[in-house]
Design a protein that fits this description.
Blueprint lengths: L9 E4 L6 E2 L1 H14 L7 H5 L6 H9 L3 H18 L6 E2 L3 H10 L3 E5 L4 H10 L8 E3 L12 H10 L6 E5 L2 H10 L2 E5 L6 H7 L3 E3 L4 H6 L1
Parallel strand pairs: 1-4, 1-6, 4-5, 6-7, 7-8
Antiparallel strand pairs: 2-3
Helix pairs in contact: 1-4, 3-4, 8-9
GO molecular function: phosphoglycolate phosphatase activity
Pathway: Organic acid metabolism; glycolate biosynthesis; glycolate from 2-phosphoglycolate: step 1/1
Protein name: phosphoglycolate phosphatase
Length: 220
């Protein structure tokens, strides 16, 4: 694998499908929400295609409903998710914890930009024993605009005073890649999550890896 041509300072990570294997929990929660609210049936594949978007936007996309109705769906989703999200329900993908700790030890700034709520992110970071390695978190409640808009990346860059081309965005969906591309940063897709390699390429991923540990080879 070729290394980055330019030395970077900042690694911005997605969470769902990149760090944490949350797909089954998310899809189970979607299906239970649909049943609880008597919404039209949607396949697990259709629900999976919205992973990476904020929940309100995901429900609007799935059911063509207005924002107020989508917010009700989101609230029900959160209640069900909290019931299903027992300790150990979400595990890190192979090599995620070790790789993040190594990136941090090498002096890289490692952060997360996610469409998940901040509280949920903080809980997972603590559960994965990464509180000392993740230096900055942005959840859906921390920005006005969300993926694929570049605001989460731009806000992180501003926080650290880092240029766009000194950062790489790592994620598993086209929404992550488009966010990074629109911010002017390097992007790296992971093909083991919720998006396909073709989708990541089409979105403009600079690099695509099949194991999270390949990040260490990429950044050098």
């Amino acid at each position: 694998m070729d290394r980055l041509e330019k030395k970077i300072k900042l690694v911005i990570l997605d969470f769902d499908g990149t760090m944490g294997d949350t797909q089954q929990l998310i899809l189970d929660t979607f299906q239970a929400t649909i049943e609880a609210l008597h919404l039209p049936l949607r396949s697990r594949e259709a629900c999976a295609s919205t992973i990476g978007l904020p929940l309100v936007q995901a429900f609007i996309s799935l059911f063509n409903i207005d924002k107020a109705e989508a917010e009700k769906c989101r609230d029900t989703y959160h209640n069900i998710f909290d019931q299903l999200n027992v300790k150990g329900a979400v595990v890190p993908f192979p090599c995620v914890i070790k790789t993040i700790k190594e990136l941090s030890a090498r002096g890289y700034i490692v952060t997360i930009a996610s469409s998940r709520g901040r509280g949920s992110l903080e809980n997972y970071v603590a559960e994965f024993d990464l509180k000392n390695d993740i230096q900055f978190l942005l959840g859906v409640d921390d920005t006005v605009k969300h993926k694929p808009d570049p605001e989460p990346v731009l806000k992180t860059l501003t926080h650290f005073g880092i240029k766009a081309d000194e950062a790489i965005i790592v994620g598993d969906t086209k929404f992550d890649i488009l966010m990074g591309v629109r911010a002017g940063s390097l992007t790296c897709g992971v093909d083991y999550g919720n998006g396909t390699r073709d989708e990541l390429k089409a979105a403009g991923a600079t690099y695509i890896i099949s194991s999270f540990s390949d990040l260490l080879k990429l950044v050098g």
